């Protein structure tokens, strides 16, 4: 939109005011967490105040309890494993669905996509009895499998759409060159799918990282808690130690915020790609 | 419903503003989207400090000389739902904004130029040209807003426990409570199925309604 008359200046300054106000409203709560994490509890009780200095006691309390360390380590490994599984499965499925013209594959595609409509909440009971039957409750493997499964529909949607844009001739050329199915997939197709893989990983890993309800349900021992669950249990066990809770919140906010800072571009692309096709 | 409409208006406004190529728009876009990548559980705990009766909002109101506006944001059954809706909106505004932004940049420049040549500008141009072309994106944003709002769990779970007197209980929360609090797995499954049918219904209706209003160019 371009404005080149006199009103443009007023419109522009109005736009600045609105944007600045929005940014301030969004920043304040986040800033408050970081400031409070350096306050003593007595300072936190005086609600509106600045910390008197860089007081690191709260962070010491958090790291003494080992909850943060376990939480971060588990979240990293669960997110990584779930994403790896989801990428491998959905790229192979997306490749097949994108290439085959038979009815069966169109049906499978719809079947996978319809899973997107089922909210996790509606599945709670059946998921729980399924995992208990498989002896996968209170296990990281169980969480990895469920999270990967949650990510599949989105992955299949993205990969199928992308595979359709890759010319068939590339596949055919590799067949003529004597590549078998496995080789064609791993050496020819996978590298071509890289852009969509990046988008998929960036967007979905945040969902896996933030997942709370399922971990709350399945994980009982401290050493297996993911970071949201660790924050939750920590905030109830240290209910009166506000400073420590804020330090814990700050630690929990940092990784996704940094991740987002570094991968912004893919978020914006991915939100659009997923949304337009969905 | 009202909150989703309001949310969409805010998102669209922000997208239009950011699309104006002002300085600092990359920063604004980053900040507005940021809460969406943080776990709603953590957001809920963060906002707790603001919404308690002795929390930051009330304290600021007192100091600003507006004690009349002090309210029990989480403890009053009439207010609590609005408080949670506000936080949910605060967190996910960025997603809608980014989708609308993509929509705005997908509108061909020629259409805008043609409109300007025809002497259409300002708000009228927005209403007659930009908005119809944004309808597909509107579908997506509305759809995500509705299903997202129905799936809320973490916010009431950490902030109010569904209370006071169930005023802020969400569907997912009551499934969770029935199954794992009262061991009524049958009831929980039933709510789950109704919930699924409802979401599927809303989605289909939504898609049908907004698709009709989409414009081809």
TrEMBL record, chain A:
Q: How does it sit in the membrane?
A: Multi-pass membrane protein
Q: Which key words are in the record? A: Cell membrane, Membrane, Transmembrane, Transmembrane helix, Transport
Q: Which GO terms describe its cellular component?
A: plasma membrane
Compartment annotation:
Cell membrane
Question: Carries keyword Repeat?
Answer: no
Question: Is this entry keyworded DNA repair?
Answer: no
This one is known as: Carbohydrate ABC transporter permease
Naturally occurring in which organism (per UniProt): Cohnella ginsengisoli
TrEMBL record, chain B:
Pfam families of this UniProt entry?
A: BPD_transp_1
Stored SUPFAM superfamilies: MetI-like
UniProt cross-references to PROSITE patterns, sorted A to Z: ABC_TM1
Answer whether the UniProt record assigns the keyword Cell division to this protein. no
Q: Which residues form the ABC transmembrane type-1 domain?
A: 1-206
Transmembrane spans: 30-50, 89-108, 129-150, 185-205
Q: Where in the cell is it found?
A: Cell membrane
Q: Which family does it belong to?
A: Belongs to the binding-protein-dependent transport system permease family.
Protein name (Swiss-Prot/TrEMBL): Sugar ABC transporter permease
Organism annotation: Cohnella ginsengisoli
């Amino acid at each position: 939109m371009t404005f080149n008359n006199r009103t443009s200046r007023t419109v522009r300054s109005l736009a600045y005011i609105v944007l600045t106000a929005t940014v301030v409203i969004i920043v304040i709560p986040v800033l408050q967490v970081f400031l409070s994490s350096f306050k003593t509890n007595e300072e936190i009780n005086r609600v509106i105040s600045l910390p008197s200095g860089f007081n690191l006691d709260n962070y010491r309390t958090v790291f003494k309890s080992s909850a943060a360390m376990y939480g971060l380590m588990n979240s990293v490994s669960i997110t990584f494993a779930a994403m790896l599984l989801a990428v491998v499965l959905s790229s192979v499925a997306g490749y097949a669905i994108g290439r085959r013209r038979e009815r069966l594959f169109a049906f499978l595609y719809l079947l996978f996509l319809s899973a997107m409509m089922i909210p996790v909440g509606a599945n709670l009971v059946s998921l729980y009895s399924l995992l208990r039957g498989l002896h996968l409750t209170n296990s990281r493997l169980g969480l990895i499998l469920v999270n990967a499964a949650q990510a599949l529909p989105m992955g299949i949607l993205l990969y199928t759409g992308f595979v359709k844009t890759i010319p068939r001739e590339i596949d055919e050329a590799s067949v003529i060159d004597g590549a078998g199915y496995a080789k064609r997939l791993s050496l020819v197709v996978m590298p071509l799918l890289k852009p969509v893989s990046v988008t998929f990983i960036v967007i979905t890993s945040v969902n896996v990282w933030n997942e709370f309800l399922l971990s709350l349900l399945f994980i009982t021992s401290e050493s297996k808690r993911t970071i949201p669950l660790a924050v939750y249990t920590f905030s109830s066990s240290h209910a009166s130690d506000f400073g420590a809770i804020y330090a814990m919140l700050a630690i929990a906010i940092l990784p996704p915020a940094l991740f987002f800072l570094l991968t912004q571009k893919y978020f914006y692309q991915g939100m659009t790609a997923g949304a337009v096709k969905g | 419903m009202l909150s989703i409409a309001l949310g969409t208006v805010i998102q669209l406004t922000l997208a239009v503003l950011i699309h104006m190529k002002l300085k600092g728009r990359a920063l604004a876009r980053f900040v507005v989207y940021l809460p969406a990548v943080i776990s709603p559980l953590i957001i809920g705990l963060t906002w707790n400090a603001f919404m308690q009766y002795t929390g930051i909002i009330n304290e600021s109101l007192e100091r600003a000389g507006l004690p009349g506006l002090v309210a029990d944001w989480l403890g009053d059954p009439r207010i609590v739902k609005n408080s949670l809706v506000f936080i949910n909106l605060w967190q996910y505004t960025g997603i809608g904004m980014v989708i609308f932004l993509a929509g705005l940049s997908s509108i061909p420049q020629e259409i805008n130029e043609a409109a300007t040549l025809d002497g259409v500008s300002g708000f009228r141009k927005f209403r007659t040209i930009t908005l119809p072309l944004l309808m597909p994106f509107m579908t997506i944003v509305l759809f995500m807003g509705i299903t997202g709002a129905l799936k809320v769990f973490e916010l009431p779970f950490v902030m109010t426990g569904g209370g006071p007197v169930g005023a802020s209980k969400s569907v997912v929360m009551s499934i969770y409570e029935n199954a794992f609090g009262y061991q009524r797995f049958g009831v929980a499954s039933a709510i789950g199925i109704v919930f699924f049918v409802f979401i599927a219904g809303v989605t289909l209706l939504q898609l049908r309604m907004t698709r009709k209003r989409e414009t081809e160019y």
